[in-house]
Amino acid sequence: MQNQYKVLAVIPARGGSKGVKNKNIRLIGGKPLIYWSILEASKSKLISEFYVSTDSKDIQKISEAYKANVLLRPSHLADDSTSMNETLQFLYKQLENLDKVFDIIVLLQPTAPFRSSEHIDLAIQKFIQSKNAKSLVSVYKVEDTHPARMYKLDNNECLIKVMNEPESYLRQDLDEMYHRNGAIYICTSKLLKEKGKLTCDNPLAFIMTKEDSINIDDEQDLEIANFFMEKKIKES
After folding, report:
1. What is the secondary structure of the chain as a DSSP string?
2. pTM, whole model, 2 decimals?
3. Mean pLDDT per segment of 10 residues, for the chain of length 236 residues?
């Protein structure tokens, strides 16, 4: 597919992490976690340029060792309360100051190491071909974690249904539901600049498998991801 659009990809990787210490540089399959996103971004046929956005000198050094462009951000844009929208707006202004302008922005979180360049290009292609889409979000289909089987607690710790289950209680009778997997976000630069948003109210869906949707939030996720990555490397 010939791409007439300028596509910017951003890999956000702050130094601090509460769930997993130094998460973005912990080893997965013998490589720092961030390596896998840099690798796949570099293999994409539709990304024009990509940058790692970080506040960490260690992440900067590792990223540059893998030939990634790095833009540093201030520490106040790298704490737990910083939204991704703020980070992207800051980075986009940095690039505009360098006379770089893009039509489409792709966010590739390093916590999704099984998202491939093929996933990235298929998502970009779908976004471009939709013509009217303002944003896209990658998801996977949920099964046993369906919201019809979930509850909230009231003040007495009694269960309250999140939504009503069909009378049959059969899985096949439940409406299909999809969970955001954090692997790929796409938006127009216009949406980010004018609305300060990465996603609109009804983003386009890019459906991935559950296996490719492993997202690292805690130490257990890290162990699972390492197991599957090592298996993948052996099989390749």
Report:
1. ----S-EEEEEE--S--SSSTTGGGSEETTEEHHHHHHHHHHH-SS-SEEEEEES-HHHHHHHHHTT-EEEE--GGGSSTT--HHHHHHHHHHHHHHTT---SEEEE--TT-TT--HHHHHHHHHHHHHHSS-SEEEEEEE-STT-GGG-EEE-TTS-EEESSPPPTT--GGGSPP-EEEEEEEEEEEHHHHHHH--SS-SSPEEEE--SGGG----SHHHHHHHHHHHHHHHHH-
2. 0.90
3. 83 83 93 98 97 94 97 82 86 92 96 97 96 94 80 88 69 79 96 92 95 93 94 90
